[in-house]
Design goal:
The chain has helices at residues 23-27, 46-55, 83-91, 100-114, 134-137, 158-171, 226-234, 238-247, 250-255, 261-265, 270-294, 304-309, 311-318, 330-335, 359-372, and strands at residues 2-8, 12-19, 32-40, 63-68, 79-80, 119-124, 180-186, 190-196, 199-203, 299-303, 341-342, 351-354. By secondary structure, the protein is an alpha/beta fold. It folds into 2 domains: 2-130, Nucleotidyltransferase, domain 5 (2-Layer Sandwich), CATH 3.30.420; 175-354, ATPase, nucleotide binding domain (Nucleotidyltransferase, domain 5). The strands form 2 sheets. A 6-stranded mixed sheet has the order 3-2-1-4-6-5, with helices on both faces. Helix 2 (46-55) packs across helix 4 (100-114).
Length: 374
Amino acid sequence: MIIMTLNSGSTSVKLGVYDTAGAAATTGGSPTRLDSEHHSGDGIEPRALLTKFLRKLRTPPDVVAHRVVHGGARFTGPARIDDAVVGDIRKLSELAPLHNPAAVHWIETARSVCGGNVEHVAVFDTSFFSKLPRRAAEYALSPSLGVELGVRRYGFHGLAHEAMWRRWCELYPELPGGGRLITVQLGGGCSITALEQGQAVDNSMGFSPLEGLVMATRSGDVDPSILPYLEKRLSLSSEQLIELLNRKSGLAGVSGKSANPGELLEDPGAASQFALELYCYRLRKYIGAYCAVLGGCDGIVFGGGVGEHVPEVRGRALAGMEWAGIALDLAANRAARGAEAAIQAAGSRVRVQVIPVDEEAVMVRAAAGVVRTR
């Protein structure tokens, strides 16, 4: 089976083509990647890009797997795409305004460009967290304000966290189900997950991908009473304020210069350095909380563009955590840039690992599973 992956973000897209035939015999169960491209920027034109990509393939895809950020309560696993599924994904756009509208646009374009003989499967970031314990999934709201209206904590970056967990289990098979694991996805969006033998028990993102850690342009946790206060003071609508929290806050908002931690590290200015301090402080705070949630920790995994490539962030986030049995090998941490590496010190009770995130492999497995069950 030839499966094309379409991993679209708010201003980027990753395209890949994979062959599932003979995967177990040749690559330990992983699909074989035949081709891939990564494009970013505001000027991406989906139809032209997909048409050009498909033309260069030796074999057209049988299936296209689409990453969709928010599946709400409707989608607790991957789903074969039809018009009704597209409509349901569109309805969820208000919960993920940076991502779901873009995903719908890519899905509709791909269905048109690829023709009627190609199946399409949606793979949802929220699905990995569909079985969160109730105490982690619900807010302290009455049912009429909360779960009855679909207001709950959904969790996000599920593909990334699942990919890190899968690779961790391959590296440390002696830990049943991966043991007690904290996975940290740091990119434009940032999230952290607590896993107990492969079951997600908490995730820092909540009702939308805005909750939790400080991110590139997103604020992360804020007191909700800030919104009506700012509405009055700035004469802005709630929609405008959410837009500001999504696009004009986080590292970019605090520093006033950049959303990129690597760039901020090179700027000695007070605002840039404080933005980094806040970013790493919030991360360390969540790591400590998840150590408590899990009753201890066997491992911490860093992934994503920042998690894999910026050792200073990893170092600052884990500084002073010897009380939890976490200690870094400073030289190993400095050397780990974009490649898989163990970076814990010799005496650390907790293993710390950098793992490049392979969301596409998770997408291929999910899509193949859906198609094979028809």
